[in-house]
Amino acid sequence: MEVCLLNFSSVYGDIIHYHFIYTRPDLRGISLAKLHFIKLNQVCLENGYMEMELYCPKNNNRGIILYMRLGWEIQSIRNNKELLMRCDLEKVRNKAYELIIAGK
After folding, report:
1. What is the pLDDT of residues 2-48, one digit of tens each?
2. What does the pLDDT read at residue 7?
3. Closest CA to 54 of 26, 24, 76
4. Phi and psi dihedrals of 12, rounded to 5?
5. Pair 65, 32: CB distance under 8 Å
6. Which parts of 28-88 fold into alpha helices (H)?
7. 45 by DSSP, 3-state: which?
8. Closest CA to 31 of 71, 64, 66
9. How far is the CA of 19 from the CAs of 11, 16, 54, 56, in angstroms?
10. At 23, which CATH number?
11. pLDDT of residue 33
């Protein structure tokens, strides 16, 4: 069995903290991360969570672009190395649907 997609998230109070997502290189570009966001966000919403946050290395251009396209917002920068980003779970879930349907 090979790992295709891996995610680690945890609960901090009333916010979900999104630690990381990994997609195997040969499977990138087929919307696995977006599909995962839909499922993760739906489960979080069903359990009463409304927000998610993450720290993203500021040199992770591909990740930052994806998060911004999904509706995440940059809140601050930590140690001049990581961006604190937050999102509304419903907004990101809906935007992920839109991007997948549009083939983006």
Report:
1. 878 788 899 999 999 999 888 888 888 888 888 888 999 999 999 99
2. 84
3. 76
4. -120, 95
5. no
6. 32-46, 61-70
7. helix
8. 66
9. 11, 9, 6, 9
10. 3.40.630.30
11. 83
Rounded Cα–Cα distance for residues 60 and 37 (Å): 18
- DSSP class of residue 3? -
Which position has the token pair 């295709």? 4
Q: In the numeric block, which tokens belong to residue 44?
A: 């979080």
The first and second tokens of residue 64, run together, are 């930052």
What angle, rounded to 10 degrees, do the helices at 89-101 and 32-46 form? 150
**Strands 51-57 vs 82-88: parallel, antiparallel or unpaired:** antiparallel
Domain limits for position 90: 5-101
Q: What is the pTM of this model?
A: 0.85
Number of domains in the chain: 1
Are residues 69 and 62 in contact, defined by beta-carbon separation less than 8 angstroms? no
What are the residues whose beta carbons fall under 8 Å from the beta carbon of 11, sequence distance 6 or more? 17, 49
Q: How far apart are CA 52 and CA 29, in angstroms?
A: 23
Tokens of 57: 């290395």
